[in-house]
Specification:
Helix content is 40%, strand content 18%. β7, α8 (198-210) and β8 (216-221) form a beta-alpha-beta unit. It starts with a strand and ends with a helix. The strands form three sheets. Strands 3-2-1-4-5-12-13 form a seven-stranded mixed sheet, with helices on both faces. Strands 7-8-6-11 form a four-stranded parallel sheet, with helices on both faces. Strands 9-10 form a two-stranded antiparallel sheet. It is elongated and about 70 Å long. The chain has 343 residues and is of the alpha/beta class. The protein folds into two domains: 2-138 and 281-324, 3-Layer(aba) Sandwich (Rossmann fold); 139-278, Phosphofructokinase domain (Rossmann fold). ATP binds at residues 10, 72-73, 102-105. Homodimer or homotetramer. It comes from Actinocatenispora rupis.
C-alpha cells in the first residue's frame, strides 16, 4: 500500500512531527510506502513529489515549518482539476491521501472525499479554529511565543509610561489573543467574536491611569473589528484565495487611541505576525501532532476514509470531515467572559 501526504496552507509548528509519525507508522508498522507531495495541493496538481522513508524524517521532530513545503491554491482551480488529481494519484499508485492543513485544506479534503477519493485529514492551525477537535497543534506554540513577547513588552511599556498595543494572529477567532493576554497579564483583549467600542476601550485605559497605573498593554487579534459606527475602520480586502487581507488593527487602534487620549500619552504598537508560526514547536505540540498523524495512518489501515483525526478530551479519535468543516470553532461567549474577567 502507498500513502500520499501533503501539508497545505500556512506553515505551523508541528507539521514535521505529523510527517514523521505518518512515515514511521506506515513503514515500520505496516510495511507500506509513503509519497510526500511538494508544496501542498500544487504538488498534486503538478505531480511533484518525493519518496519518504524513515531515514528522511530522522531529526525533524523539533523543526518548525514543513520539509514538504506548502502553498495556497485557488479553490476554483482545485475543483476544476479533479481529473488531473485522479490521474496523478493513480499514476503514483496512491491508495490513500493524508492532507494536513487548516480550514481550506480540509475543505478540499472533504471535497475529494465526496468524489470517492480515499482521504483522511489531519487538522492544523495556530488559530485553533478547526471544529470537532479540542485543540490543534501549533496553537500551544503560538500562545507561548505571544505570551513571552507580551511579558517582555510589559517592562518597556512600564519604563516609558506607554500604552502598548500588541497584535497577534487570529483571523476569525480570539483564542491566541485571549490565552496569551491572560497568561501575560494584559489589561485588555480585543477579539473578532466581540466587536469593540473604542470609547469603552479608551475609558478603560483612562480609569487605569486615574487609579495610579502608568502603563497599559492591550492585545488585539488581527481580525478584531470595532462595533459599527464607533470608529473609522479600514477592513482591508479579499485576496484571490478568498482570504481577507487585513489593513492592520494595531495601527488603526494606535491612531484612534492617541487621538482620544491626547498627545501626552505615548501609544505604540508591536505586530508579532509570522513570529508566531515559526521556530521550534513546544513539547505539547510535538506530541499532539505525532498522535494525530499516527491516528490518520490507523484510519487508512481500517479503511475509515472521509474522516479527520481529532483530540477529544485526552484521546485521539476520528470525526467526519463533513462535521469538521461545517463551521469555524470560535471562542464561545461564556469562555470569552470567563477569561476577560481574569484580566
Amino acid at each position: 500500500m502507498r500513502i500520499g501526504i501533503l501539508t497545505g496552507g500556512g506553515d505551523c509548528p508541528g507539521l514535521n512531527a505529523v510527517i514523521r509519525a505518518v512515515v514511521l507508522r506506515a513503514v515500520r508498522d505496516h510495511g507500506w510506502q509513503v509519497t510526500g507531495f511538494r508544496d501542498g495541493w500544487r504538488g498534486v496538481l503538478e505531480n511533484h513529489h518525493v519518496d519518504l522513508v524513515p531515514s528522511r524524517v530522522r531529526g525533524i521532530l523539533a523543526r518548525g515549518g514543513t520539509i514538504l513545503g506548502s502553498s495556497r491554491v485557488n479553490p476554483d482551480h482545485l475543483t476544476s482539476s479533479i481529473d488531473t488529481i485522479r490521474g496523478v494519484l493513480d499514476e503514483n499508485g496512491i491508495d490513500a491521501l493524508i492532507p494536513v492543513g487548516g480550514e481550506g485544506t480540509l475543505q478540499a479534503a472533504h471535497w475529494l472525499s465526496s468524489h470517492d477519493i480515499p482521504v483522511v485529514g489531519v487538522p492544523k492551525t495556530i488559530d485553533n479554529d478547526i471544529d470537532c477537535t479540542d485543540v490543534t497543534f501549533g496553537f500551544d506554540t503560538a500562545v507561548e511565543i505571544a505570551t513571552d513577547a507580551i511579558d517582555r513588552l510589559h517592562t518597556t511599556a512600564e519604563s516609558h509610561q506607554r500604552v502598548m498595543i500588541v497584535e497577534v494572529m487570529g483571523r476569525h477567532t480570539g483564542w491566541i489573543a485571549l490565552h496569551s493576554g491572560l497568561a501575560a497579564g494584559a489589561h485588555q483583549v480585543l477579539t473578532p467574536e466581540t466587536p469593540f467600542d473604542i470609547a469603552e476601550v479608551c475609558a478603560g485605559l483612562q480609569r487605569r491611569f486615574e487609579a495610579g497605573d502608568n502603563h497599559a498593554v492591550l492585545v488585539a487579534a488581527e481580525g478584531a473589528v470595532p462595533a459599527p459606527g464607533t470608529m473609522e475602520f479600514d477592513q482591508g480586502h479579499v485576496d484571490q484565495f478568498g482570504h481577507r487581507r487585513f489593513a492592520g488593527i494595531a495601527r488603526q487602534l494606535q491612531l484612534e487611541i492617541s487621538r482620544r487620549l491626547g498627545a501626552d500619552r505615548d501609544v505604540t504598537t508591536t505586530v508579532l505576525g509570522h513570529l508566531q508560526r515559526g521556530g521550534t514547536p513546544t513539547a505539547y505540540d510535538r506530541v499532539l501532532a505525532s498522535r494525530l498523524g499516527g491516528r490518520a495512518v490507523e484510519a487508512v489501515r481500517d479503511g475509515k476514509y472521509g474522516m479527520m483525526s481529532a483530540l477529544r478530551g485526552t484521546e485521539i479519535e476520528l470525526v467526519p470531515l463533513a462535521d469538521a468543516v461545517a463551521r469555524l470553532k470560535t471562542v464561545p461567549g461564556d469562555t470569552c467572559a470567563e477569561l476577560r474577567a481574569l484580566l
